[in-house]
Amino acid sequence: MPEKKTIERAREDAREGKAPTTQAGEFVREEIHHVREGKHGVRSPKQAIAIGLSKARRAGVKLPPPPKGSASARKSQSSGTRSRRRPSSRRSRATTRALKREGRSGASRSALSRQARSARRRRGGRGTTSGSRSTSHRATGRG
């Protein structure tokens, strides 16, 4: 269950007309804080982001469904036919215990930075060419 503050921040973003991804960012931020404070661990930054997005969807943020072929997509596909029930306390406890066994390095600054860089590269953002700056320095004789 997300914290009240997180839900309020996301609602505020919605009122301001911000994109659903911005609203969901609040839940992802909360999840990263949880990992950093030792509430539980994650295997990778991607897992922390996925947990945050899942919480955002449950809280009513109008996000697109998870991408095809991902574990979340398969999970939502199987549960799509019946109404969304609360998971049994046994399953919930198992999930929490599994996350507690994971490491904390998935939410480190360097791991998140690496994740952001690879995501940007996949989207085709700035900085896709590797080492373009260093070659220009060599050309000017300052490298």
Helix fraction by DSSP (H/I, runs of at least 4): 55-70%
Helix-and-strand structural type: mainly alpha
Q: Given the C-alpha coordinates, what overall shape results?
A: globular
- Looking at the chains present, what oligomeric state does this protein adopt? single chain
Radius of gyration: 19 Å
The averaged pLDDT comes out at 86
Describe the model.
With 143 residues, the protein is mostly helical. The model has no long low-confidence stretch (mean pLDDT 86). It is globular and about 45 Å long. The protein is built from 7 helices and no strands.
Features of the shown structure:
globular, single chain, 143 residues, 7 helices
Write the topology of this structure.
Elements: H1 4-15, H2 20-36, H3 45-58, H4 71-78, H5 89-101, H6 109-123, H7 132-140
Helix pairs in contact: 1-2, 2-3
Summarize the structure.
By secondary structure, this protein is mainly α. The protein has helices spanning 4-15, 20-36, 45-58, 71-78, 89-101, 109-123, 132-140.
